[in-house]
């Protein structure tokens, strides 16, 4: 009995140590497992956010324990071997899982699981590294940190020089090297330099004595951090949302790295899981089956008709690498049946990225390409279902991709004045007119006699305002975009006339966003009817969801508010043109009587492998030249990040 009583007090500290040391760590790992599992399962957003909140709570407990109790080792204490073994095991397991995935083994969750294991392993390795020999500003930390940061800089410079012209295995090798440098070498180097800086400043603070206050370095660090927070708030207030988010992310990540906690691991892990999580999907409603419908609307065209820019899409139409038509239930064509009840069924054929050669019938095409995941061109799909119903109306929004809308958006967001490249885009418009005319005639031939067709122009995305806060475009660039959209809309109208197919032109759609005050530069970006830069992942395989090229597909497209405005404009126009649904349209023979206007050969082609230089290659080369010419700004940004890092080091050196 006495032995038990004597053993009791000796056991209690052990239990407390286990609880304090292992409890938060185990909780952190449990939270990570829950988040990874929920992200891999493709659960609804509500359930995913609950898992994210649980992980955030677990991470907060662990980080607070690390901040308040540190690594719980005295001066000269050795790093626990189990920590090094765990770090090595997790890192090795992560590399093996990633290797198995890249070797071709199926498993959609493998990239996420492998990345998380590797991240946790590196986090524990850094914890062991930074916790060794506390209290001494080891020179090894300085040397390792400087070497790793220098390696990252050299790799980035070499990649910037070689990547634009690299191909095949060299291109892949450069990407892998750049990824390792940015996501492994740089974080490790910053951690080493941070630990060295914090230890050095803490020794200086200790030498100054308890009455010395925060010191000059601490005061500057606090001032720098406060200024950064104020800059984030000011940018958000001025509607520079993306710049505000980027600055806030940089500040939080630097603070997390300097803190010597797992806060940086938690932030990156949460970001990985959010990117890996597929957006919500909607099952196809019955109204998308035209069979048996009495008033069937046929919607043909590109992303402005399919609804890209929305927050969710119909199942199977947002699969990266497979079908990326992105047909949305909030598209105005669907709303004409679900909300306004003008039609009872919709044959929804519009597909993001569609060009005339994706729409025209195979029998009428000199060049045809079926979009990935689609059973045929849009008109061929319509012809296959022609016996099941008679369309009440066909609406077409097409020509923007032929004219280079996507390339234009990329050029104008990149450094430099995209108005300088105006001839590249305007020079292709005669060819666009010719291809649209042929496509309109092909559509008329595919329809029963008397079915009306309406050509829908593109709404103007930008208001002609002198000042436009929050939109990273100069006044000449905004004027160029505004004028070019007008030219594309005029091209659509001319092609509808040239087709001699009795195609109506819905001119009012051009001003649909303007009349509802939803254009960019009319109000704050978050309230506009069109996205400026919108980041969203895709469905499909994880390799597609992790590809940065898939994250900005919603940019420069109407969102739900925009499509409601477009639907209201269409409804008002149709109300005053009800005779359209009754008038006789030209027959296929009459439509075939017209001749396509001859188009001059453009400087470059918007079609790859057409025999002419591809316009995108020309624009990319121009963008690269513009970026290289602005290297002083890059140095200024790097200097600003360095100041933020130094401020973070000074702030954390004040902690005990």
Structural class: mainly alpha
Shape: elongated
Helix content: 55-70%
Beta-strand residue percentage: under 5%
Give the strand order, joined by hyphens, for the main sheet: 5-2-6-7-8
Distance between the termini: 43 Å
Specify Rg, calculated over alpha carbons. 30 Å
For the report, how would you describe the main beta sheet? Answer: 5 strands, parallel
Separate helix tally: 24
**Mean of all residue-level pLDDT scores:** 83
Total beta-strand segments: 9
Poorly predicted tracts of residues: 1-12
Describe the structure.
Helix 18 links the parallel strand 7 and strand 8. The longest helix is centred in the N-terminal third of the chain and has 41 residues. Helices cover 57% and strands 5% of the residues. It is mainly α. Helix 1 runs parallel beside helix 9, helix 4 packs parallel to helix 6 and helix 4 runs antiparallel to helix 9. It has 24 helices and 9 strands.
Can I get a quick summary?
This protein is mainly alpha-helical.
Top keywords for this entry?
5% strand, five-stranded parallel β-sheet, elongated
Write the layout of secondary structure elements.
Blueprint: H1 2-41, H2 45-69, H3 81-102, H4 110-131, H5 139-162, H6 168-208, H7 215-237, H8 241-258, H9 263-276, E1 281-282, E2 296-301, H10 303-306, E3 313-314, E4 319-320, H11 332-338, E5 345-348, H12 356-359, H13 378-384, E6 391-397, H14 400-403, H15 405-413, H16 422-426, H17 429-446, E7 453-455, H18 475-498, E8 503-505, H19 512-515, E9 539-540, H20 542-545, H21 560-575, H22 588-592, H23 615-628, H24 631-652
Parallel strand pairs: 1-3, 2-5, 2-6, 4-9, 6-7, 7-8
